[in-house]
Every structure is written in structure tokens, then in C-alpha cells.
Design goal:
Two copies of one chain form a homodimer.
Chain A: E1 7-13, E2 17-22, H1 27-34, E3 52-57, H2 65-70, H3 73-77, E4 80-82, E5 92-95, E6 122-128, H4 140-152, E7 158-159, H5 161-173, E8 177-183, E9 186-192, E10 198-204, E11 208-215, E12 221-228, H6 238-247, H7 249-273, E13 281-288, H8 290-296, E14 317-320, H9 321-324, E15 333-336, H10 346-354, E16 364-368, E17 373-379, E18 382-388, E19 409-416, E20 419-424, E21 432-433, H11 435-447, E22 464-467, E23 470-476, E24 487-490, H12 491-515, E25 524-528, H13 529-534, H14 537-542, E26 554-558, H15 560-570, H16 572-583, E27 586-587, H17 596-603
Helix pairs in contact in A: 6-7, 10-15, 12-17, 15-16
């Protein structure tokens, strides 16, 4: 910015964030630079309409064609604009509707203690060394290695370069009494005696990130915390991120740096909670879907988004933490679990480990619901996996009044004796509907015959309206809502939900058919992930998305991927086993499965009994 | 440099280098920045007087006390100044005397072919892979690893991160036909089929650098080249370099970067000679003394220069070439051989390997002469080593008319029937005396009784003069020299040479005494290094520096360290053996050896018979 560029002062309300921005940046860019987490599903391309803001005062550019396509005329008259399409022409005050903010959502970080005894790759050893003298002129490196051999019987082959670069001062400052941290015959860290041996496990989701600080010796979880993935500002789904990363190598590096910066802050906060330092982190395990995995490691992502969709890297990787920009002990490694396929990533592997899928006795279905839903079927230790393009409905996107699971979202809905009841997150006035609420609504409308098996909204209900040729069911009247507009579910929304439901149901049915199993053969259905945890199982069983089994066969396990990451962190033996077993997982490409189209078309209908899957298919 | 800083234009003659420099830089700094390799033994501290230049025109700062101490009044009147003490006050023309330039010296790079069959760590494999399809969705990494396993029976565990970052485009660009370069179960490079597999071996001396380009498959040396170590501008000996590196971490990094930049240029030139590319370099082996080793790897050097003098790193290291800044294939490693002690480095280890010291049948002495002289005694595969502070006389420093072995240096000298004959490098008018010439002179004066056993110059010879209380022997009259001054050797020079001779002789005698051997027990004396190659053995035997053995027991082997580096480059088996055997080398600290003072004091006398070492010492 030179001194001649105009700039404007912009205040973002109700957050109270203010800053000055040069002319020519879109409001979306300004918001990002100010640290405002505006929703942007399409990554700023002007197609999703989710980055809606209200211009309270000041002059802005004229509405673009895209805005008049997406926004209503009355909305534009009230100052509503798409932030990615709008440019300041004067100082501005901008109001950000709650539904446009991706901030402060429910994050799933709690988790049980790790159910196995620790066997970490990194072990620490106390060393008492003699200082060099004329009769003992061994190099500092050899002195430490000899000490490990003689005092602990540990044969060491190498020392990390960064450790070697500071070895002389470390030994002398600590008067030749140090702790050496050894990982697979490599000294990765050397420091004052009695420093703790910490590990960090990260579940890096497209939207949410969960971090766990673990004592590597005891296996105890010392602290846990959830944050948002900061890449969300550059597109909400993996495809938008991949598109952003492919713009230029600099954009890819920027995405990588953003997430590392955020993970460093996360591990800083975790360490502070237990008054430890990041330099005591001796190992990290990170799991994420294949796209998050590739973006984190700055691997090529083009082939992830182009048929036949293959990962650049499927195998597990060990990378020096510093090479990725992480703040840890000098020579610490980051271990990333293997991926299964382009759309079944290391987080699903971790989830399988976290819910002990390999050890399951009867047939087990493991489902991780999201924009992309990964499902695996485990039978006697043999696992097959599929990936279903279930779409963003679960995150409230592509739904007229959809929103994230944050304050004011309708998360539960029922029709009792014909009258409507609902619940919002934090009990505030409703501003929209989040994923669990949307499926409750669909199930309730279906069960009350307001929506038929084909998904049509039937007209003979007082809450059903036809407005500008669009049929909708009014959930909440405008007098009760936070923004004074009706909250409804439209015929289009129902179609969107049918596609999501069909995708997941198809995945389940293909996995079962491939193995010659019927719904009732399934002993256990594990539903993981934040969304899966809040979902009303009865609703998704009612519409036919999940098999019609007794609820006791279902288990909502929360962040099983985080648990899997923790297990890999504290157990070298399990880590090896996971690698070996993951290579044996058979991935089924749905579109390639015989009879896929039939199975999918049938699954679009609501309810059960349309499939004939109560009987075993041979 | 702001716009308000004055600057001056300086021309360096006879080189014809011109540039503009800001006020406040010493002439030495200006010269370095202009790329003029001015000699500076003391590293710019104003004590060595070697950076002498002549101000031809323009104004400069007044002479400092240090200059009036070191330079003669008539010299200062003629415009001679010390570059490190002098600052421009106007545009300047500066003449650089030949003896102040460290440029263009004899560099020892030739060498025999490597006498063993190649067994390199890096092997290349041709792969024909199938493209991914709906029925084969393996990740790119797994596809390559599977190919190595199935097509070549090579189990691969990991792939280099940088290779993974480009794997997708490499495979697709080359239509799934590639060469994979594998090193210890790691894929370190992936590229077009039929790329050569090149290695580079470097002997990184304090002054000179020798580089060899080797075909890893055939073991053939494809090209060889010598260059100067660019760090020389920051101090000529290791101590001056260590002092410079310890000024600040930035200075240490700068020294590291300078040498890497120069080695990159060297390997570029080597590759160009055989029309190959640096990206085909799959492995490097670098050897150097412990200080050069530590500076190259940016390891701490403080403890190298402070009693009890220990290396930070003695063990062999494998470092990713890119982490040090080298231009090679993506995942190539640099291997550095182990060090023996703070003053017996990896270059001496390479020299021992290069002259097959471990396989020697009779007792073998291996001597690498320089400012620091390393000597080893090998008996039946058992090696003991010492380090002798022989001083810079061999490089012509600390000698009144000493200079490096470059054009105009007297490199051989004889007194035949009382009259003096000499030879200069390139046959030009003499400007000074280089190392081999200095020892010829001392030997000839001693053999002709002009210098007695105690080192005193005896007065009764027409060429002996007393000038300002300093006795000297005129080697060349001023009418015959390039600069119009006498070239002489002074009483002080003889004392300096006696110290150098005593240091080396003491090293040899301590090694022999330690083993209970006498001079005549030695079967072979290997003299390595550039200086060792040009030395007249008769001269150094005559003064007593080397044992009085028949010349047939001596072998002047040139750059044996370079040969050792080449062997380590092409043989994984030898590399392992070297590591193992080096750990067993016993280093003797001379000052700690019983009777050291006696042995040293006796060795100051010239000639043999003063030691009683013709008889076996029990």
C-alpha cells in the first residue's frame, strides 16, 4: 500500500472489530484481515450467498448480477449484501448476521481415557556424564551416545541435527547432567533433567480442530481443547480449499502456514493449562481427512479433485515437526496416520482405531457423518470402506434457513399432537436450523404425512405455503425469530436432504451387499464425529438413512478419531499395527459398484421397506 | 545504505575490479565485497600485516598505530597501507601486490581411479507403473512402493517429503514410467527414466577445496576441479574462522552460506563439464578438518578452540543436502565422515582410507602437512593419531618473505658449489618464497653450514647481512625481484621453521615411542596433501623433520583425503567400515604424553642424531 492509496475505516458489528483497509479489497477480504470469521462456502466466488452482511452506514459499490440473483430485492433494500461482491466507497459500519459468522460452535473434544498402557516411541533417559579432560577427549555426541549405551543399554545411531547444533551448550549449561529423549535410536531432544515428556494428538477437521495434550509416560490426557480450522475463511468444504490451494504455490503455502499457526497456538494453550512448555512436546500425531492431510503437509492436491481421485500419499509419514513449522522440542516428529483413499482419510483410520473396529466380533458399521461421510464395515478384522458425497446439509449449508450448530440454531424439532415444538442452542431466539434440527424436521414431517415417501410436501397442512411458486413448511413464524423473517423448510430443502440421505444409505447398503449381509446382521453401528453425536437417531432411522435396528445396537462415540490419534501417540505397537492393517482395507468406489444406480435411486425415497434389505442378499 | 551516506568509487588494480562503496567500510571490507581475495591471516584485526595494499591515488584515513608498528616508514611513504586499518576519504585507485592476493594457487585435484568396485548407497530402479483407474485407486506413493517391491524386490519404507510433494506431477508428466532412486529403503528421488546417478565428493580444506564428480554406478571419476575456500576472506586459519563464527549466529550462518554457495558453484561446473544437471546428484560426501566440518554443518565451534578441545560432533552424519542449502536431487543426502578429535578431522579419516592405512602390513606413518599437521601411525590395523600445531610457515605465513604457492613464488632452492639457484612457480620474477622453497632453503643453509644445528645463522657468508640488528641471508638480490626489494630469510624465519619442524618431528616421535618403535621400523611414510606433494623430501629429511629413511619408503600421494571421500561415496560397505574403525582410533594429546617437553625441546635442533631414535625405545 503506497501513501496515495485511499483507505476506509470499517467497523464490524456486533463484534466491535474496527480497522482501516485500502480501497479495492472486498468486504470479505477486509473481514478476514480483521479476524472476522465470515462464512464462505464457495470461497469468495459469489455463488453460495452465505457471506451475507448488512451495510448499516456508508457507501458501497453497486450490487452485482450475482447478488441480485441470490439476494431478495427487499434484502438489498435493507442493506443486505454479499461480502465477497461488495467494496467500500467510504467509511462503513457493517452488521454481521449471526448466521454469517462461523465462530464459536460446539466442539467435540471430550473423550475417555486411553484404554491401553503406554508404549510411546519416544523414551527419556537420565544421563550423568563426565566432563571432557585431557585423558577423555570424546566428542560431545559420542559422550552422550556412550552414556545411553553404558547407563541404559540403549544403542543410539543418530542425533538430530538441531540437537547437535546446541549439544555443546546444553551439556555445559546443565553441568553434564541431562535427559535424552530417544526415538527409534535417534536422540531427538536433550535438555535439563526432569523435563516432562509430552505428546500432542490433533484431529484436524475441515471445520473443527480438536487437540489433546498427553503425558507420554503415563498415557494420561492432561488437557483438551477445540478450535476452528482457520482455513475455513478460504472455503468451507474441502473442494473450495483445494481450489484455493491450486491457485498458486503461495496460496497453498499460506493455507499450510495458517493451520500450523493455529495448531501452535492450540498446543501453546494446552501447555499453559498444565504450566508446561511447547519445547517439552516430544511427539505429535495428526489425523485429518485426505485433503486436510495433504494441505497440512503441502502435498499436491490436484489429483484429489480429479477423476479417478487418488491421494498423492496414502502411507503413514513421519516428518520433523520443525520442517512443517511446529513449535516442539528440537528434533520432535509429527506422525500422520495413513489415508485409505482420496475421500477416506487418516481421520477415518483413527476413528476405526478409536472404536476398535479391527477387534469387533460381529459385523460393525462405523460411520463418520459430514459433508463427506466415510463408512466402513468391519467383519472379523476385515474392513471395507466407502465414501459418500453427502453434501453440506449437515453443516446447514445449501438449506434455505440452514446454519452451523451455534447459538440460536434449531437443533431439535417435534410435532406433538399436530403442534410444533423446537429447541435452540443456548435457548436464544431462533435464527436458523442446524443439521440435527433439519433431520428432526424431515423425520417429523414424514412421520406426520406432511412429506410423502417420494419427498413431496403435501399441501393440506396449515403451515404449508406456496410462495412465489416455492412450497414451504413454516417452522417458526417471523414474530418468534431473531431476525423477523419466517424460518421454513422448502420443497428444495427436502430434495437436498433426500440426496444426502440417499448418499449415506447407499454407502451402507453397498457395503452390506458386497459382503452378502442384511441390515439385521449388523451387530453394532458406531456413529462418530460432532454431528453424529448430536443427531437424533430415531429421526435418521425413520427417514431410512440408518438401518432399522434397535437403538441398543447404536453407539454415538463422539470424537473417536481424536481417541485413535491419542492411541497412535502413546503406542508405537498400535501405530505399526494401524499401518499394516490400513494397507489391507478394501476401498469400494461407489460409482463403480455393480447395481449402484438402482441402489441409489431406491434410496432417494424416504422410509424403509423400499429396498428389500430386510432379507439377506446373496 | 540511505541516500544520505557518502560513497566512493574504488578501483582495484591490477585486477581491474571497480565498484562503489559506502563511507565507513575498511578497504579490506570493500575488497571482499568486490570479490577481491585479499590475504588476511588475522581476520582483519590489524596484527598480521598480510593485507598490505598500495594507495595509488586518492585520500585515505591516517595510518593507525598498528600500521606504523607493522609497516616501514618508507613503505607508508610509498602508499603501502594495511587494508583492514584504512578507510577511503575520496575515490581511490588501489594496487594489490601479488603477495597480498590469495588467488589462483596450485590445487591438488588429480587422483587415481578408485580402486574398488562400486557399492553405492543409492541405487536406481526403472519403474513401469499402471495409471490409476476406478478399479485401482492406490495412492501415488503406494503405487511407487508397490512397483519397487513387485518389479525389483526392493522393500521401501519411506519416501522423502520433497519427493512426495512433487510425486503426482512427476508420475503423470513421465506417463507413469520413471526411475526411482532408493537409499536405505527411502525413495530419495524420482525422475525421468535414464537420468544418470551422480555423486560428488568434496575435500573441504581450510584454504583449498577439491571436488570430484563420480558416476555412482561405475565408480568412474567424471570430472575434478579445485577452488579456493571463500571463507578465507574471513581469516586464513581455523582459529581466525572460529573467532569470526563466534561473533554472532549470523556470522556463523554467513560463513556456512559462503562455503555452500561456493560448493554449489563447484558442483555446477563439474556437472557442466559432462553436460549433466545438479538435480542428478544423488549423494554427496564431504570431508574436512573438524573446524571446517563444524562450520559447514553450523555446529558450535567454541569448544574446539578452548581446552580441553573437543568436537561437538565426532560421529559420521547424514544430513539432507537441501537442509544445508545444497543443490542436488530432491532428497539427496550429504554424508560427512567422522572426526577423530578437535584437531584431527574427517579429512584425516578420509586420508587414512585413501592410503589404505587400515590394511597396511608393516608400520605405516600417514602425514598430512599444513598449518595443523595430522599424523597417524598404523600397525596391524590399529591406529594412533596426533595433531601438531606446525603453524602457518607451510603456507608462507609468519615468514618475512613468505607467500602462498602461486605465480612468482620460489618453490625450489639449491646451493651448488657455493652459488645459489632457485626456481619460481610459472618461471616469473620472484616475489616471495612458498612452503616448499622455505624448507629447501633451510635444508641447504644447514647442509652448507650457514645455519648451525642450533638454528643460528653463521656470519661468515657473503650473503649473510645484519640489518637493523636482524640477521638475514639474502636469497635473491633486489635487482632480480618483482618488487625491487631483497628476498631473504631472517634469523626469525629460521626460528619459526624450527618450531614447525619440531612440532611435526615430535608428533612422529611420540607416536613411535608410544608403540615402542624406532624410525627404521617404519615400513612406509605416506605424505599427503598439496603441500606434501610439492615438498622436497630430501630437504625435510635433512633438517630432521622426517625420519632418516631411504626415499623408497616414502610415498607422496597427493589428495588422499579426496580419494577417501570418493571411496566413501561409492561404497556403502567401506563407509560403514570407516565409521566402525574410526571409533577405535586412539588419539594422543601431545601435551599429555609422558616426556613430551624433552622430546619437543630436542626436536628444535636441526638434523638427526640428536634424539637417539635410531635405536628402538622400549
Amino acid at each position: 500500500m503506497t501513501h496515495h492509496t485511499k483507505s476506509f475505516h470499517i467497523a464490524f458489528q456486533p463484534l466491535g472489530l474496527r480497522a482501516r483497509f485500502p480501497e479495492g479489497q472486498s468486504i470479505l477480504e477486509c473481514a478476514r484481515n480483521a479476524g472476522v470469521d465470515l462464512v464462505s462456502v464457495c470461497g469468495g466466488n459469489g455463488t453460495c450467498g452465505k457471506c451475507k452482511v448488512q451495510i448499516v452506514s456508508g457507501d458501497v459499490s453497486e450490487p452485482t448480477q450475482r447478488e441480485t440473483d441470490v439476494l431478495t430485492e427487499s434484502g438489498i433494500n435493507k442493506g443486505y449484501r454479499m461480502a465477497c461482491q461488495t467494496f467500500a466507497k467510504s467509511d462503513l459500519v457493517i452488521n454481521i448476521p449471526a448466521e454469517s459468522l462461523s465462530a464459536l460452535q460446539r466442539l467435540q473434544v471430550e473423550g475417555l481415557e486411553i484404554p491401553l498402557s503406554p508404549d510411546p516411541l519416544v523414551q527419556s533417559y537420565h544421563l550423568e556424564l563426565s566432563a571432557p579432560s585431557l585423558s577423555d577427549l570424546r566428542g560431545d555426541d559420542i559422550r552422550v551416545m556412550d552414556g545411553l549405551g553404558k547407563q541404559h543399554g540403549i544403542p543410539c545411531h543418530t542425533m538430530d541435527e538441531a540437537v547437535l547444533r546446541s549439544i555443546s551448550s546444553t551439556l555445559r549449561t546443565n553441568d553434564w547432567r541431562v535427559s535424552a529423549f530417544v526415538r527409534e535410536q535417534e536422540v531427538i531432544s536433550l535438555g535439563a533433567v526432569d523435563g516432562p515428556s509430552l505428546g500432542v494428538a490433533i484431529d484436524l477437521g475441515t471445520t473443527k480442530v480438536a487437540g489433546y495434550l498427553v503425558d507420554l509416560q503415563t498415557g494420561k490426557t492432561l488437557a483438551a481443547k477445540g478450535v476452528m480450522n482457520p482455513q475455513i475463511a478460504y472455503g468451507e468444504d474441502v473442494i473450495a480449499r483445494i481450489v484455493h490451494a491450486r491457485k498458486s504455490p503461495e496460496d497453498a503455502s499460506m493455507l499450510q502456514a495458517k493451520v500450523v499457526e493455529s495448531l501452535n497456538r492450540l498446543s501453546h494453550d494446552l501447555c499453559r493449562e498444565v504450566t508446561c512448555k511447547q519445547e517439552n512436546i516430544q511427539e505429535m500425531v495428526i489425523v485429518g481427512n485426505t485433503a486436510m492431510h495433504h494441505l497440512l503437509l503441502n502435498l499436491p492436491v490436484g489429483q484429489l479433485a480429479k477423476a479417478p481421485y487418488v491421494p498423492a500419499v496414502s502411507g503413514a509419514m513421519d516428518v520433523k515437526a520443525r520442517d512443517l513449522g511446529f513449535l516442539t522440542s528440537k528434533g520432535a516428529y509429527v506422525h500422520v496416520l495413513p489415508n485409505i483413499a482420496a475421500f477416506v482419510g487418516a481421520d477415518h483410520v483413527a476413528m476405526l482405531e478409536g472404536c476398535h473396529a479391527w477387534d469387533a466380533k460381529g459385523p460393525l458399521l462405523a460411520i463418520d457423518i459430514g459433508t463427506n461421510t466415510e463408512i466402513s464395515l468391519a467383519v472379523d478384522g476385515h474392513i471395507t470402506s466407502v465414501s459418500c458425497a453427502s453434501g453440506p446439509a449437515f453443516e446447514g449449508a445449501h438449506i434455505s434457513h440452514g446454519m452451523r450448530a451455534s447459538s440460536g440454531a434449531i437443533d431439535h424439532f417435534q410435532i406433538i399432537d399436530g403442534s410444533v415444538t423446537y429447541h435452540t442452542i443456548q435457548g436464544t431466539k431462533p435464527t436458523g436450523i442446524c443439521g440435527s434440527g433439519i433431520f428432526d424436521i424431515l423425520a417429523q414431517l414424514f412421520l406426520n404425512n406432511i412429506v410423502d415417501q417420494s419427498g413431496r410436501i403435501i399441501q393440506d397442512h396449515p403451515r404449508v405455503q406456496d410462495k412465489q411458486n416455492i412450497r414451504e413448511f413454516i417452522i417458526v413464524d417471523k414474530h418468534e425469530t431473531a431476525n423477523g423473517s419466517n424460518i421454513s423448510i422448502t420443497q428444495g430443502d427436502v430434495r437436498e436432504l433426500q440426496l444426502a440421505k440417499a448418499a449415506i444409505q447407499t454407502g451402507i447398503n453397498v457395503l452390506l451387499k458386497d459382503r452378502g449381509l442384511a441390515h439385521e446382521d449388523v451387530s453394532e453401528v458406531v456413529v462418530a464425529g460432532a454431528f453424529g453425536n448430536y443427531l437424533d437417531l430415531s429421526s435418521v432411522i425413520a427417514i431410512g438413512m440408518f438401518p432399522n435396528l434397535t437403538l441398543s445396537r447404536f453407539r454415538q462415540v463422539g470424537n473417536a478419531a481424536g481417541m485413535g490419534a491419542k492411541i497412535a501417540l502413546i503406542s508405537g505397537e498400535r501405530r505399526q499395527t494401524i499401518q499394516k492393517l490400513t494397507r489391507k482395507i478394501r476401498y469400494i468406489e461407489l460409482a463403480d459398484f455393480p447395481g449402484f444406480n438402482d441402489i441409489y435411486m431406491k434410496a432417494i425415497s424416504l422410509g424403509h421397506n423400499q429396498m428389500g434389505y430386510s432379507d439377506k442378499i446373496q
